[in-house]
Amino acid sequence: MQGQCLCGAVSYEVEGKPQGASVCHCSQCRRQSGHLWASAYVLEDLITIKGPVRWFEASEEARRGFCPKCGSSLFWQAHDEDTISFSLGSLNDDSEIKLQKHIFVASKGDYYDIADGLPIVGES
Questions:
Q1: CATH number, domain at 52?
Q2: Is pLDDT at 115 greater than 90 in this prediction?
Q3: Where are the annotated coiled coils located (predicted)?
Q4: C-alpha dist (Å) from residue 14 to 18, 57, 83, 108, 117
Q5: Count of structural domains, the chain
Q6: Residue-range definition of the domain harbouring residue 31
Q7: Per-residue model confidence as pLDDT tens digits over 9-64
Q8: Is residue 27, in this structure, part of any structural domain at all?
Q9: Which residue of 12, 49, 53, 102 is surrounded by the most CB atoms within 10 Å?
């Protein structure tokens, strides 16, 4: 499975099966992505990232990776975990990944509804 940023300067390849496909509605993800953050994660050893990723320390808990050239939001990584999340929207082709849940919906924007029937995990 492969993905890249909008301009192609940053690319990545995922080995193995990604886990935890979700849509995050927290205010940080909404600001970073411009709407919602859909991602899945793999062990850090199962993703190879190429190109000039810029990391932003978004909080004391996590950092966010993006392309410094085109600004595409690509990665999210908790400081205390050995996994890394990647943007589902940045995948190059069909992945067969299916969303499993919505998270942090208490922070969701008031301009949309969640109506796809997926589980809502944790209201906050």
A1: 2.170.150.70
A2: yes
A3: none
A4: 8, 23, 12, 29, 28
A5: 1
A6: 2-109
A7: 999 999 989 999 999 999 999 999 999 999 999 999 999 999 999 999 989 999 99
A8: yes
A9: 12
